[in-house]
Amino acid sequence: xxxxxxxxxxxxxxxxxxxxxxxxxxxxxxxxxxxxxxxxxxxxxxxxxxxxxxxxxxxxxxxxxxxxxxxxxxxxxxxxxxxxxxxxxxxxxxxxxxxxxxxxxxxxxxxxxxxxxxxxxxxxxxxxxxxxxxxxxxxxxxxxxxxxxxxx
Amino acid sequence: xxxxxxxxxxxxxxxxxxxxxxxxxxxxxxxxxxxxxxxxxxxxxxxxxxxxxxxxxxxxxxxxxxxxxxxxxxxxxxxxxxxxxxxxxxxxxxxxxxxxxxxxxxxxxxxxxxxxxxxxxxxxxxxxxxxxxxxxxxxxxxxxxxxxxxxx
DNA sequence: TTTATATAATTGATATATCAACTATTTTTA
DNA sequence: TAAAAATAGTTGATATATCAATTATATAAA
Lengths: 152, 152
Prior knowledge:
Two copies of one chain form a homodimer. Chain A is mostly helical.
């Protein structure tokens, strides 16, 4: 049976694009904030906007599983970006609080991230972005809802 | 300074799409071939088509760095999918050869991968795929060629 | 209200990602 | 041709990804 080389597929294009963007964005972020990563930035930004988020909810927002999120938050606590404390309303969860160091970083991050986004989207108009989103969502929904193939 | 939540950006859409596809594809592959991953499949397919590829070249094709590729190929050798041998034309490189086990797997993979691709792209026409590729390439090239932001 | 089920988070095992430092070669160039 | 630079690959350190098993707590069902 014939198959296209992976490098010719749309999936290859999608994957290489997001990797290139992440590399670009990380370089600009860590130039200003050496111990900060993209995903850790995202966690800080989400927590700033929605302080009540649980680890599980944050994990979903940044497409990680719970185990990864536990470890990521461990390192963020070690690096003094977050404080974990007991949530007496539901003792299975934790309260996650931003530290002063996090608040400082949250002052510097938005301009960097906005410039990253603008630079990587330069020459692309809103309609194109809209189209892109529609098609990507269709692919995503196909992947989510398609039956898995029978083991033949 | 204001910033859109990461979950509203096109980058979030790109990333979540490729992750959903990888999850879907992996499930279908490992249902038939338990110890096989997507990236290992890609390596086998590339090597089948281009047997002379070096580790470095394969790494580029699947967007990994050399260190990751070294370790990935180590595990593929341990799992008896590949054989590494000395290349006397250039002793810095290795020759990578597919084993009989790899050839067997290469019989089963293409129909699975073709079905994965077709299922995840159902309802999307060629013109849309073409548009998608164009825009993604533009983003990628913006990320590659933009000057990094000055540390201000 | 006890038992069963569900949920949030952690841990262990294994694979992968990434950077920087390193070894062994090969190629360039002075 | 000898020294310098480039190339292919490895290794160590650290972070992250993923699955399955586990703990602690909360909610639902009998």
